[in-house]
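Notes, Module 5: Reading structure tokens.

Key idea: the token line is not a picture. It is a compressed description, and you learn to read it the same way you learned to read a sequence, by spotting repeated patterns. We will look at two proteins. The first is printed below with its tokens.
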Amino acid sequence: MRSAEVSRRLCLQTLAAAGAGLLLPVWRPRSGQAAARLGDVPSRVALNDLKGKSVAIPSDFKGKIALLHFWASWCPTCRGEMTVLEALYAQYGDKGVVPCSIGMGEKRETALSYIKNLVISYPVLLDPDLSSRKPFAVSGIPTYYVLDRQGAIRHRILGEAPQGGLERMIGTLL
């Protein structure tokens, strides 16, 4: 399945879940497939940042509190969320909190255009082949995961996350 088609399906699934008032995952792993659950350390996923440097999740974030933000360029709220994540990074970065935005199905040129007028100093990764979708059970955009300093999943949010809620989650891990 082409990445544009998968992205469109993720959008429709997110809208359907939100319209029904559900925050349950739409995608479920097949038998034998590992999907991220609270308390688990997710399977390793290697993605490139905007400069082409490989970043491994969760190992490259060990010792840090990682806020993983799965986004797409068609997402109407994702740009604003990146601004919120930058503010959180400015506030909590010296305490070991690192946001990381992961562009699902995005190519470098599209991502650069999408964030062109934003000031982002935290990592932005690209997942053009959607390799992180299954290990992280990304069923809609935006999706957030909060990993503790050992790389274990402590929180998962499907949909937009308010700054105050993210701050409370970070506070439980500091």
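Here is the second protein, with the sequence above and the tokens below, as before.
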Amino acid sequence: MQATFKLFIPFAFLPFCFAFFTQSSTLESTEFSFYSEDIMLHYDASIDLPFNQVLEEQSIVNYYEQLEEINFEPLVKGIKKYQVQFDLNDWLMYELTQKAIGNIAPKQSQKEKVLLTWFLLSKLNYDTRFAFLKNEALIYVRSNDDIFETPLIEEGGNKFVGLTEMQYKRTSNNKAVYLLNFLGAPNGKPFTFSLSSLPKLKPDLQQKKFQFEWVDQQHNITVQCDRTIVNLMKKYPVIGETDYIKTPFSTDLKKSLLPQIKKIIAGKNIVETLQILTTFTRSAFTYKEDESYFGRSKPMIREEVFFYPYSDCEDRSALFYGLVDELLGLPMIIVAFPDHLTVAVALDQPIGPSIQYKGKKFYICDPTGPSNSTEIGSVPR
């Protein structure tokens, strides 16, 4: 049948058909879990390409060009599909890419996996830089976000963040790296870490109970906390304080928490509502510094405050900011002291010393302390 079919193809189309059949390849598939979701990606097995040379300018460029000859499009399209489907930000997309490479090329060395990651990020149109030192391969990516605890380089007024060093400790510390004079995506886009929206991953719900007292009345609150969101934050890069504070509630936490709070504040004026919200964030949770519990700095988003047994001032500020934003919609500012973080709310009614900012008066409503106190409007002592 195939030979008969070819007889009817006009001569002018034969070169195109020949090119199509010679460039086609047999695709394989890999299946794995990504947090709470099952993933299937198709790829050309040839992409598991060994790199048995010394890391040098020409050998790296040659390797990149060899990868370009392979049918990489199905893998790139698959990653893009899941990025859109689950609303993954760039960091989570990077994690998905890393996990895919681990399944596609499990026997590759760390150096080879970094090279392949760099290639795929470039084909996903991110503005990357490849750096190397001796036998160590490193990826940097342009970002406008505030990122901490990882090396940065500057080029042309732009900031490039060390992605590789967020996963692997660099063995050659305090030594300058060589930056490859080759761009995989010359017009690539910046990389974002912000969680302005949470990914649409299947929730893994856990019930949590809390209680607090306001004006001699005890209130009990039960919420649904999403462990999927908590798990993805465990190894998340350290981002700016504002990003933690503005990361939204998960859908299930919001649905379970806000209606209960609304019942408690029903009929109360704005000042009373702020007193109730500060009493909740001060008293329903147990205070402990990150270093004491986690052994490291661990800023939390709102979801984590409900999941972990302890939280500190940064974490309470994130939760309080979210509650005021959702329930009152009032302007707020974050106020940083040398050893404390707190929130000030814009009010028309004076409740204490104010902070003038952009023509508005803001009053401190400290989400952390004093515990079991309804006092607002003053600098925490």
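Summary for the second protein:
- DSSP finds 13 helices and 17 strands in the chain.
- The longest helix spans residues 90-104.
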